[in-house]
Write a structure and sequence with these properties.
The protein contains 9 helices and 2 strands, in the order H-H-H-H-H-H-H-E-E-H-H. The chain is mostly helical.
Length: 181
């Protein structure tokens, strides 16, 4: 599928509501549990998404649109959420994510990007040359990837409880992936 800004916006707009519908008012055993060492809980996934809203997608798009390849993006700390959101409530994180996402999507829509804009290039510190279209497509895929991760983490909390039905539940048959997967 080719990248289309308006179609990506349809996904990006829904992510905060999906997170809130799935996580709001759940007991800690659902939102603070992970898959084991070096994996993330739903709480940490939401924190990671907030950190991305602050430091990744729109800030990098601005670099592409204003500096092109002359300035590499700032490296992204994939684990910043562990210290940054320690002691905060999940409700506060969900509200923060919703507010930041609405602001970022408003900025993106205001830009009224053209196909030529989507081809503009920037420089990722590890990946090299990337386009604005690739960055925005990655933002969308990143949301979906973390929603899948979140569902898998929660599903695995019942690995033993489902008994023999485990055979039919693919997330319970796979080994835990690394954090951020």
């Amino acid at each position: 599928m080719d990248f289309e800004v308006n179609e990506a916006l349809q996904i990006l707009r829904r992510t905060p509501a999906v997170l809130t519908a799935l996580l709001a008012n759940l007991p800690d055993r659902w939102v603070m549990s992970n898959e084991g060492a070096d994996t993330w809980s739903p709480f940490e996934i939401v924190g990671h998404l907030i950190h991305g809203e602050d430091t990744d997608w729109i800030p990098r798009a601005v670099v592409i649109l204003t500096k092109g390849e002359t300035r590499a993006f700032e490296p992204f700390d994939r684990n910043a959420q562990f210290e940054r959101f320690k002691g905060q409530s999940l409700a506060a994180l969900l509200d923060t994510f919703d507010r930041l996402r609405r602001s970022n999507l408003s900025t993106l829509e205001r830009w009224a990007l053209t196909p030529a804009d989507l081809m503009k290039r920037g420089r990722h510190p590890d990946l090299g040359t990337v386009t604005l279209g690739q960055l925005l497509a990655t933002w969308t895929a990143h949301d979906l990837s973390h929603l899948a991760q979140l569902a898998r983490v929660m599903c695995r909390q019942y690995t033993e409880a489902v008994g023999p039905w485990r055979t039919y539940l693919r997330p319970l048959q796979q080994s835990g992936g690394p954090a951020g997967a």
